[in-house]
Amino acid sequence: xxxxxxxxxxxxxxxxxxxxxxxxxxxxxxxxxxxxxxxxxxxxxxxxxxxxxxxxxxxxxxxxxxxxxxxxxxxxxxxxxxxxxxxxxxxxxxxxxxxxxxxxxxxxxxxxxxxxxx
Length: 118
Hints:
- It is a single chain.
- It is built from 5 helices and 4 strands.
- It is α+β, with helices and mostly antiparallel strands.
């Protein structure tokens, strides 16, 4: 699966609910954790953040609580959290939510896919 396809899948997942870190790791590694697939996952997260498609956060008392800016630190923080979980989040770790821009992109991809299957 290409990086773009991984991003599209995560964006479409975000239309339904917040996206778990476990889902990100699975989509990007297909269950094979090694230096190459770790790099792919971090590259995907970087694009999600830098293109303002998704925002990381934690589940707190108020629901989804965005990580504080600046977004340039989010990939480093993401990698630290993944390393702390030995890249096996299994329901632990941070979550991702769609931004308004990410939602527009995800809906466009979903509509295109639906048109192709009709």
